[in-house]
């Protein structure tokens, strides 16, 4: 219940944060919303010398929708779930985020923090994969953009380089013929996803012209479902087509097993929740 | 040690704290505001909910140094001039508490819920209170208490 | 006191809001961790990461040298503290008992057992110093399952317990049961697992020990349901100090559910350490520590057989249970799977022949002891599951098989086949009928059939239960192995100004006893409700009592108070007669006045009498001053509340998710002092039983690590996971106490798990499912469907 000692820094600019990260290297941790990090620190599962609190960097907060959607890394879940602009342009995101934890977690927890932590059971990664998001980062070498497909590399591991921090996430608004939905099976105690399926579908001329599915909770990292996506593309998006495509979900995927859901069950649920997310996404696209 | 200035229940405090000091320990141990409780290690139970700049947070999952410059309201500061907050009144009227340990966190969380959604359905109350655990009441009377507060606030 | 107050409506039976609440809703409660004493230090305990190991060495030197550390102690330092005693052993059979020490010495037997303590200036420093202690362990083999622990080749925990058996206890008549089974038309068998649960009061356990060197007195502030019991046991058995030199104080207690009845290692530890360092010592568990070291509940593996005739009549029952006791024998643990389980396995049914064999077993896990319901939920779950199981085999309606076997109203007092005290009173069918009516049972089966055609799986589960409350009769509990009395006490004082103070030996911690007791006093003495104060929790000013558990506060403690009130009224009549120059034999007491029979104007109010009694200048010859009476009540019997609960669920066969659609509870706890409080107790009890059916389970891996070790993994239900609860009542008074009350604290928990499971299994009937184990998690349900 009590963290180890550390030095505390509260930079007010990204540049300042990056230089602190450079200075302390592996001995530094970034504090965003803190709802993954602080419990780990209290249980002494995470110990380090320097804590860099980026909550005072105001440039990292905010939602901007103008042709493109840009969300500051330190934007809270609550800001996202209550954003009318996002509800109008990308309803899946506020909906999915409203399923994260509880009100208090969403008042503090941030989108960037979730992505950087890369918890295999967090909700946002699946949604980001389905929406083909881009992650903008700043580091000692300047700014760069990482396609979300290249971002999650393993359990709790991303392609962020030492000294880099996420500054924003960009997405394309959903237009006519496009639909996306998130379907979640929550853990009864932690409310993280045991399986979470995010689906994006584009219909053109009555046929599915594009499809992206992100699965979280089931494996060591959130993953796209290439064969299920391929199976749906070109179909009419009917219930039968969706059911057939969803049968491919989880293929070639490492799947976790724990006291709440063994591997067989998780594999089955990947299919069920993929089907449910696809069904809702197609309905919205029509 | 880090110097912080925190306004708690309208009163400004200048304190020196270790950076690792949790906000809940700062409130309880440094300021003797023991109405905010601790029930878990992992941010599940919500016994420690307070308001920071008007929003409910779990004070066990925030550092005191992060509250530097902030306005904090704890259960001790919720009633005004001896007048109970409608949520406090609701918990009393509807037998929304038994042992009372989780209650202060529930009241603070419910006050935030009603601020965000003044007219919640029972289902919205149940989902809105997912960040708080009560082991005594089975929640039925907590739902009634929050509904009471919602109606009372609407009548004002 | 004016005459008007006697005209007020009776307080008893009113759903008034609680007087406990104003302080609690404003953050002005006073729980143990809220208390600060001058010079207070903080203890942190180093806990074993191994479930079974020898301790080869402990090096505390670095921790002791850490700035801010006051002292570091190990088990070797405190061998003068005796192992914790086992106050309730299985009766009439040998108990191979072993109690834990204040800190482990030479060996550890479960993960979380304390091996060293750091005492420091603050809790942060104490925690830091734990990381500086070096312990060299020699890990040993581990066993966590009670049945496996009894098998040949299993690792042995304690030398005095071959095959890890603590006791083998039985009740009922084996020959008669065997004979009945042989003659039955059909035997229905099942293995029923009642999984291990973690009580999880929202306040963890903790304590502050303070030794006063000047007076040689110890004071212990503690999270206790039974401070007098803690005081007695600490003095007489654990620390060997005179009883008058120790005082236990339980301030506000944040929930307990059984887990705060027992003796724990940290209580003597902080007292001992306070004496050693000359300063107060506080210890509060983290939730993770609470999960590892505070007692758990349930954990039975049971093979049960029911002998049934074709018409649904149950003629015999045989039960064999492995009860996991954990690594040591906890304070009351011997009585839970024996007296409070074995002796009520036949439930609400008139089953003429039954036998129950229970093996209490050591394993490398936390100790198991009473958790809300304590033995009765296990029994009730088993018999109610089996009645449904038999109904399925006989193709009989589950309501009908229950009616067929209910103990009938004219059979009370009823003696069951497994040697329990006689059931005091009961009338089971009206509660069943009312619950069925509320559930719309007449139409349900048709709705269920139609829903199934549309691929929707509805299920309805019935649970008719009886339980044992007001656990007390001293001669009985002592014959059942409990090592003390279980009477209860109350002192009532009517002060000079007419205000009333009651000191009770019970220890409420959420039950609203301050309110209900004050309601009774207001009516009995005819004083204002607000003029009554109820005190408890401090052994220095309350009479010796056994505390709050077993739904006994009102039944036994309230009855003790009633006795004192009667004594007060008698004395008031004598004094009033003297003041009125009347014959004491002609006096009556009613509506707050003692008056001459037939002349109600010749009266003295209780306030006038109290003042006269307190001043003492004009008393009858030989009468002592003051209206002050202490009573001890030892009831002739327990009480046996009952009722029927019904749950309706819908199961999603794709995912296995269970939707709790309705929950209906019809309970009979006798007359109600405060219906608001009764309903709250029922709600809370239901949530805990329902949580066992749906969500909760403590899981140890094969190495004895508690996998469900935090609230991230152990699923306490939130508001969204518990349904709306519909309640109603029948009222059958108990003849076993002067208030006629039966107790309501545990009923909900004892009734609910099987209502839910019977509903889930009913929903799964089209898949050929006849039984599944708790909890009905989505995965468990899904696998049950898919294994068919």
Describe this structure in words.
The complex is a heterotrimer of chains A (286), B (156) and C (788). Chain A is an alpha+beta fold. Chain A contains 11 helices and 14 strands. Chain A has 3 domains: 7-52, Uridine Diphospho-n-acetylenolpyruvylglucosamine Reductase, domain 2; 59-171, Uridine Diphospho-n-acetylenolpyruvylglucosamine Reductase, domain 3 (2-Layer Sandwich); 178-285, Enolase-like, domain 1 (2-Layer Sandwich), CATH 3.30.390.50. In chain A, the strands form 4 sheets. In chain A, strands 4-5-10-6-7 form a 5-stranded antiparallel sheet. In chain A, strands 11-12-13-14 form a 4-stranded antiparallel sheet. In chain A, β4 (63-66) and β5 (68-72) form a beta hairpin. The mean pLDDT of chain A is 97. In chain B, α2 (86-93) crosses α5. The radius of gyration of chain B is 15 Å and the shape is globular. In chain B, 66% of the residues are buried. The longest helix of chain C has 28 residues, at 553-580. Chain C is 28% helix and 23% strand. Chains in contact: A-B, A-C, B-C.
Quaternary: heterotrimer
The succession of helices and strands of chain A, N to C, reads EHEHEEEHHHHHHEEEEEEEEEHHH
The span between the termini of chain A is 50 Å
SS-based class of chain A: alpha+beta
What is the name of the CATH superfamily of the largest domain in chain B? Answer: Beta-grasp domain
Keywords:
heterotrimer; B: 156 residues; alpha+beta; Ubiquitin-like (UB roll); DNA polymerase, domain 1; 5-stranded mixed beta sheet; 5 helices; C: 788 residues; Aldehyde Oxidoreductase, domain 4; Aldehyde Oxidoreductase, domain 3; 3 domains; 7-stranded mixed beta sheet; 28% helix; 23% strand
């Amino acid at each position: 219940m009590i963290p180890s000692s550390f030095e505390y820094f509260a930079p007010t600019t990204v540049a300042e944060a990056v230089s602190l990260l450079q200075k302390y290297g592996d001995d530094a941790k970034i504090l965003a919303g803190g709802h993954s990090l602080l419990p780990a620190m209290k249980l002494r599962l995470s110990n380090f010398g320097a804590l860099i609190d980026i909550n005072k960097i105001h440039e990292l907060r905010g939602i901007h929708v103008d042709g493109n959607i840009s969300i500051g890394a330190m934007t809270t879940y609550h800001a996202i779930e209550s954003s009318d602009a996002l509800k109008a342009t990308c309803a899946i995101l506020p909906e999915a985020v409203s399923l994260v934890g509880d009100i208090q977690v969403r008042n503090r927890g941030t989108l960037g923090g979730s992505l950087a932590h890369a918890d295999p059971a967090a909700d946002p990664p699946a949604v980001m994969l389905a929406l083909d998001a881009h992650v903008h980062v700043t580091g000692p070498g300047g700014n760069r953009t990482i396609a979300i497909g290249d971002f999650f590399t393993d359990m709790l591991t991303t392609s962020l380089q030492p000294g880099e921090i996420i500054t924003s996430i960009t997405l394309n608004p959903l237009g006519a013929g496009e639909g996306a939905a998130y379907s979640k099976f929550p853990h009864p105690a932690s409310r993280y996803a045991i399986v979470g399926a995010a689906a994006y579908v584009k219909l053109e001329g009555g046929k599915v012209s594009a499809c992206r599915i992100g699965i979280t909770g089931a494996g060591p990292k959130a993953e796209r479902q290439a064969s299920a996506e391929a199976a749906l593309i070109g179909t009419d998006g009917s219930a039968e087509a969706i059911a057939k495509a969803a049968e491919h979900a989880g293929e070639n995927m490492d799947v976790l097993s724990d006291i709440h859901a063994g591997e067989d069950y998780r594999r089955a649920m990947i299919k069920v929740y993929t089907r449910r997310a696809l069904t809702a996404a197609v309905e919205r696209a029509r | 040690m880090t110097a912080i200035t925190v306004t708690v229940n309208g009163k400004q405090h200048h304190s020196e704290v270790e950076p690792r000091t949790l906000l809940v320990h700062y409130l309880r141990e440094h300021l003797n505001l023991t109405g905010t409780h601790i029930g878990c290690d992992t941010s599940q139970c919500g016994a420690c909910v307070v308001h920071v700049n008007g929003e409910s947070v779990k004070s066990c999952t925030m550092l005191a140094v992060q509250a530097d410059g902030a306005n904090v309201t704890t259960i001790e500061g919720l009633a005004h001039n001896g007048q109970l907050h409608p949520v406090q009144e609701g918990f009393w009227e509807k037998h929304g508490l038994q042992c009372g340990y989780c209650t202060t966190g529930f009241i603070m969380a419910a006050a935030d819920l009603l601020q965000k959604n003044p007219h919640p359905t029972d289902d919205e109350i149940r989902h809105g209170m997912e960040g708080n655990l009560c082991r005594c009441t089975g929640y039925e009377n907590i739902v009634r208490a929050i509904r009471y507060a919602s109606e009372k606030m609407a009548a004002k | 006191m004016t005459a008007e107050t006697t005209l007020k409506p009776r307080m008893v039976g009113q759903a008034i809001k609680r007087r406990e609440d104003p302080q609690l809703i404003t953050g002005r409660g006073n729980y143990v961790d809220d208390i600060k004493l001058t010079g207070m230090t903080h203890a942190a305990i180093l806990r074993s990461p191994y479930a079974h190991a020898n301790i080869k060495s402990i090096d505390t030197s670095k921790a002791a040298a850490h700035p801010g550390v006051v002292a570091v102690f190990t088990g070797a330092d405190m061998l003068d503290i005796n192992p914790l005693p086992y106050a309730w052993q299985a009766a009439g059979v040998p108990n191979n008992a072993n109690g834990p020490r204040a800190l482990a010495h030479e060996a550890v037997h479960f993960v979380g057992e304390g091996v060293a303590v750091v005492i420091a200036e603050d809790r942060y420093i104490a925690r830091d110093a734990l990381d500086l202690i070096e312990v060299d362990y020699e890990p040993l083999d581990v066993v966590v399952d009670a049945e496996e622990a009894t098998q040949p080749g299993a690792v042995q925990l304690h030398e005095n317990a071959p095959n890890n058996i603590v006791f083998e206890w039985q009740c009922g008549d084996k020959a008669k049961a065997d004979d009945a089974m042989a003659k039955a038309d059909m035997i229905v068998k099942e293995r029923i697992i009642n999984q291990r649960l973690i009580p999880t009061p929202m306040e963890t356990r903790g304590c502050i020990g303070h030794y006063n060197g000047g007076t040689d007195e110890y004071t212990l502030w503690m999270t206790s349901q039974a401070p007098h019991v803690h005081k007695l046991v600490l003095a007489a058995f654990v620390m060997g100090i005179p009883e008058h030199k120790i005082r236990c104080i339980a301030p506000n207690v944040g929930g307990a559910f059984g887990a705060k009845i027992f003796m724990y290692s940290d209580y003597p530890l902080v007292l001992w350490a306070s004496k050693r360092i000359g300063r107060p010592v506080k210890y509060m568990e983290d939730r993770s520590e609470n999960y590892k070291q505070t007692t758990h509940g349930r954990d039975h593996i049971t093979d049960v057989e029911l002998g049934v005739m074709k018409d649904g009549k149950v003629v015999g029952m045989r039960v064999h249970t492995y009860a996991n006791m954990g690594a040591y024998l906890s304070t009351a643990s011997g009585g839970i799977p024996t007296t409070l389980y074995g002796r009520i396995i036949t439930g609400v049914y008139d089953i003429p022949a039954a036998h129950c064999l229970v093996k209490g077993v050591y394993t490398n896990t936390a100790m198991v002891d009473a958790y809300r319901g304590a033995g009765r939920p296990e029994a009730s779950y088993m018999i109610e599951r089996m009645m449904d199981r038999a109904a399925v085999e006989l193709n009989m309606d589950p309501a009908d098989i229950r009616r067929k076997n209910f103990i009938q109203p004219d059979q009370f007092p009823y003696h069951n086949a497994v040697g329990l005290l006689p059931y005091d009173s009961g009338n089971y069918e009206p509660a069943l009928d009312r619950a069925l009516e509320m559930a719309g049972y007449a139409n349900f089966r048709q709705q269920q059939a139609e829903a199934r055609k549309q691929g929707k799986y509805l299920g309805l589960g019935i649970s008719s239960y009886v339980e044992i409350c007001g656990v007390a009769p001293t001669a009985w509990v002592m014959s059942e192995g409990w090592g003390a009395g279980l009477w209860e006490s109350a002192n009532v004082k009517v002060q000079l100004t007419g205000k009333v103070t009651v000191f009770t030996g019970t220890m409420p911690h959420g039950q609203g006893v301050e309110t209900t007791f004050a309601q009774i006093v207001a009516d009995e003495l005819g004083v204002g409700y607000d003029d009554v104060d109820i005190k408890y929790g401090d052994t220095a000013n309350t009479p010796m009592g056994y505390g709050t558990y077993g739904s006994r506060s009102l039944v036994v403690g309230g009855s003790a108070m009633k006795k004192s009130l009667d004594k007060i009224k008698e004395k008031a009549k004598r004094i009033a007669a003297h003041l009125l120059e009347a014959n004491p034999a002609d006096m009556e007491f009613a509506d707050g006045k003692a008056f001459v029979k037939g002349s109600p104007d010749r009266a003295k109010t209780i306030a006038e009498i109290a003042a006269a009694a307190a001043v003492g200048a004009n008393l009858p010859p030989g009468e002592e001053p003051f209206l002050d009476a202490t009573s001890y009540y030892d009831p002739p019997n327990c009480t046996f509340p009952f009722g029927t609960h019904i749950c309706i669920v819908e199961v999603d066969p794709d995912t296995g998710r269970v939707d709790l659609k309705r929950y209906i509870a019809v309970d009979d706890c006798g007359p109600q002092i405060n219906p608001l409080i009764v309903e709250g107790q029922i709600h809370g009890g239901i949530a805990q039983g329902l949580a066992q059916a749906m969500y909760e389970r403590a899981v140890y891996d094969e190495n004895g690590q508690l996998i469900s070790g935090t609230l991230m993994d152990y699923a306490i239900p939130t508001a969204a996971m518990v349904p709306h609860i519909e309640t109603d009542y029948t009222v059958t008074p108990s003849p076993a106490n002067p208030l006629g009350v039966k107790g309501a604290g545990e009923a909900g928990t004892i009734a609910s798990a099987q209502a839910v499971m019977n509903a889930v299994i009913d929903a799964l009937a089209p898949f050929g499912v006849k039984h599944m184990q708790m909890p009905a998690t989505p995965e468990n349900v899904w696998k049950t469907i898919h294994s068919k």
